[in-house]
Amino acid sequence: MSLRDASTCRAISSMVLRDAVAASTTAFATSSISGCPDPVGAGSFVAALSNPASVLFLDIETTGLSRYYDDITVVGWLTGGSYKVYVAGDDPSSLLADIAHAAALVTFNGTLFDLLFLKKTFGEFASPSVHADLRFLGRRAGLTEKKKAIERELGISFRDGLEDVDGFQAV
To answer: What are 101-114's pLDDT values in tens digits?
Structure first.
């Protein structure tokens, strides 16, 4: 199954979003995640994530791990039911416009990786005030491995035939 298969991406994103919203709503209602950074307030966080059409799921691939020496090769994002791809050298206007218009951004390690590479590549850009970084939210649920290991642990298998493809090979 291809990563560019929009129906697969929608199904996975819908499942992740539904589960995240349910867990977040319960956690905020019961105050069970005290100390959780939420600069816009719990109500805004849950509200932003509760409308799937306005949530943007984003992942990047790069030539390596250093934002100083390496570059973005591919950015994939899902928003409003559409999966889109930016390939290095393309016009980034669609990517940047979608990020700017999203109510919430969902990434895995986006805080320390994706967003820093995006800023290096495109300079400052408008982004939603709500950012759900699944690396850190997952850690609170005991999921401490890398993304591919967590996907295996949760039984998420959409990388058939692409398990060993890295960011450099993605283009």
So the answer is: 999 999 999 999 99
58, 151, 160 from 164: Cα distances, Å: 20, 14, 10
Residues 63-71 have a mean pLDDT of: 93
Q: Which two tokens stand for residue 39?
A: 């600069």
Query: How is 7-45 classified by DSSP, letter by letter?
Result: HHHHHHHHHHHHHHHHHHHHHHHHT-STT---TT-HHHH
- Report pTM: 0.68
Query: What Å distances lie between residue 97 and 30, 75, 77, 125, CA to CA?
Result: 36, 14, 12, 9
Q: In angstroms, rounded to a whole number, what is the distance separating the alpha carbons of residues 156 and 56?
A: 19
Contact 81, 53 (CB under 8 A): yes
- Residue 67 amino acid letter: R
Residue type, 92: P
Residues in the chain: 171
The bridge status of strand 130-133 relative to strand 104-107 is: parallel
Q: Do strands 72-79 and 82-87 pair parallel, antiparallel, or not at all (unpaired)?
A: antiparallel
Q: Is 9 helix (H, G, I), strand (E, B) or coil?
A: helix
* Residue pLDDT, tens place only, 94-150: 999 999 999 999 999 999 999 999 999 999 999 998 998 988 888 888 877 777 777
The partner residues of 46 in beta bridges, in order of sequence, read: none
3-state secondary structure of 132: strand
- Which token pair is 65? 């791990």
